[in-house]
Amino acid sequence: MQAVSALLGIAFSSTSAATVDDTNRDTTNELAPIEISALPFGGDADYTPASFSLLDDEYLLTNSRATLGDTLDGLPGVHSDAFGAGASRPVIRGQRSPRVSVLSDGASLFDASAISPDHAVTVTPMLARKIEVLRGPATLRYGGGAIGGVVNVLDEKIPTRMPDGMADGFASVRGDTAADERAGAFGVTLPAAGRFAIRVEGARRDADDYEVNGFTVPTIDGTFAESDTGTLGASWIGDKGYIGIAYSDRADKYGLPGHSHEFEDCTADGDSLVCGGAGHDHDHDHGGESPYVDLDSRRVDLRAEYRPSTAGIERVRVRSSHGDYRHDEVEHGVAGTTFRHEGYETRVEVEHAPLAGWRGIVGAQYSDSQFNTQGTEAFMPKTDTETVAVFAIERYRLSERWHMEVGARHERRDLNPVKDPINRPSSDMSADSASVGLVWEVRPDYNLALSLSRSQRLPNAQEMYARGVHLATNTYECGLVAAELTCGDPADDRSVEPETSHNIGLNLRRVRGDLTFDAGVFYNRIDDYIYARSLDRIEAFRLIKYTQDDAEFVGGELELTYRWNDRLTTTLFGDTVRGRLSDGNDDLPRMPADRLGVRVNTFRGPFDAEAEFYHVRDQRKIADFETTTPGHEMLNATIGYRVDAGQRYRLFVRGRNLLGEEVWNHTSFLADAVPAPGRNLITGVEIEF
Q1: Which of 312, 361, 478, 568 could serve as a FRET partner for 673 with CA atoms 20 to 30 Å apart?
Q2: Burial class (CB in 10 A: 0-12, 13-18, 19+), 568
Q3: Burial of 89 (0-12, 13-18, 19+ CB in 10 A)
Q4: 229, pLDDT greater than 80
């Protein structure tokens, strides 16, 4: 894998682990420009982008895992809130969904992952060719509410170029020992008549309940996961652009560990729980099968790009998608709750040529979706959400050593409950966001980057209207609207305001030489922060009321690499974040624990190897209903082999958690109930043609 010292050549911790032969290895210790799809100027060699991370297909082959959150876990400032083996979402600088947006090549997913941690993010890491993690002004292309950042998953389901020969593609298989996983994926692009190209992709994963070292039981019940994905795409590709469309179908079945019906009959009376008969064990017999999610997602994507000859316009991009998502939560063979999410979205962007020294994009976005729940956990009314937004991102080079990037976005959102029996009110709110980034090239190999932003996020339907039992989080949820329509003390009722984040970040980087580093700190104050305030509690079951108070997040990240020679590098890395309410300094729940580690990479001919060790501290900064999570040490190691012989073959063996530690993830809702997988050996092979 490519030396981590190269990571900082494009300004922030861009994690790109490409394997290269010694005879072709770049010894200048400087990265060539990398095109970043989610940034407006990604192909400009003169551009130092805002803070971001990049995972390419080389890295994803050996490090990707079944879910998106677990795949990204370990990047500077990025953690996972895993819920068993079937669902996990990324946590960035202490923020999670809905403050972290996950996109498929810039398009919304229309799944249910923002509603609950036990709902899967409907992207398939094995089919991803790159994953971008963005912060800074560029996030305003996708929404001011992405206070934590944007995760953009890039695939090739819509061809953007003609195949080099008869076909371009890949096929890969992998497996592991902890869950007896069997997984495979393929993708092939074929030329059709004239300028048309066709893309076919598929992936399948089948994993049993996983093992945890040291436990008296051999596996953790309810951690099995199955997934099937298929895609058919086609494009017309011309000299000045392309237009293409793809249809995707995904089906999942995965267990819900720690699932309990002990308090499913609870209700709220003002600010108190009423749980007749609750607090005892209902002794549910699952008949040999745990409760599970049965998921089906269908979507259609249209992507187009045009590079006109018109003076002043360099590129026009269009992204449009329609999603139809459904999942049932099944127990005893019966669907207890059904979640539906259907909607469409279109975004149009125009990249203009330099104008008075400014170069950038302007765009507009429209989306309309409907979310509905039915059954035991129907804690939200059927709600229609309509969003209209306009945005601009501009860059200006102030001098040879200074450049600036600015972004702005105006967004309007309408929330409308549909046929709500208790007549919860509709909501019509606007948000305005702005951001600026400054980079000072102190010397050719050093730069200092400052980012400032004021971003607003509008509450979603769950935060506004929730009223009912939510078993995954072991809560009875009540929304922001008046207590008489949800729960709580009417004396606490107040008008609902947009969240307003004031964020400042400072990074010092060395981007060339044997020693490279990126050391950054950030402070984020969020006015009217929406959080789940506990009103009452019976055992572990809580009555929560979505409430707005001021909060602040402070933290830092470090990645420092020394390149000893062309074949050996060592990297020191770590991150820390603390989130708390501004009044009273109460800690916010599920904050990531501090992490510090070291990584060694070596290369010789077609072989590469990596050893990684890090320590995660005990998490003792906890909210009032949480328990302390013990720390752990993690040892991972990888050996890879690559050969180019017409086709490119890549093989790897990776060991995870080689010390056999019991790992408790504080960012998870199952932090004190379900541990992470134990010692695991993963093997895989991929061929590209």
Answers
A1: 478
A2: middle
A3: buried
A4: yes
For residue 277, what pLDDT is reported? 59
Domain of 524 in residue numbering reads as 4-688
What's 8's domain CATH number?
2.40.170.20
Which residues, 6 or more positions from 357, have their beta carbon under 8 angstroms from its beta carbon?
Answer: 396, 397
For the segment 124-165, what is each residue's pLDDT rounded down to a tens digit? Answer: 999 999 999 988 777 888 887 888 899 999 999 999 999 988
52-58-62 Cα angle (round to 5)? 105
Confidence of residue 288 (pLDDT cuts 50, 70, 90): low
CA–CA distance, 274 with 380 (Å, rounded to integer): 19
Q: How far apart are CA 579 and CA 585, in angstroms?
A: 9
Q: Are the C-beta atoms of residues 440 and 506 closer than 8 Å to each other?
A: no
- pLDDT band for 512, please (50, 70, 90 cuts): very high
Helix (H) or strand (E) holding 71: helix 68-72
Q: How many CA atoms lie within 13 A of 453 on its CB side?
A: 36
Which whole-number Å values give the CA distances from 142 to 369, 453, 520, in the listed order? 16, 15, 24
How many structural domains does the chain have? 1
The contacts of residue 443 (CB under 8 Å, 6+ apart) are none
Closest alpha carbon to 77 in 688, 599, 505, 650? 505
**Tens digit of pLDDT for each residue in 595-649?**
999 999 999 999 999 999 999 999 999 998 889 999 999 999 999 999 987 778 9
Phi, psi of 613 (to 5 degrees): -135, 130
The residue with tokens 């009555």 is 543
Integer Cα distance of 340 and 609 in angstroms: 45
Residue 679: CB atoms within 10 Å: 18
Q: Name which of 315, 362, 364, 371 is nearest 343 in CA terms.
A: 371
Q: Give the model confidence (pLDDT) of 350-369 as tens digits.
A: 999 999 999 999 999 999 99
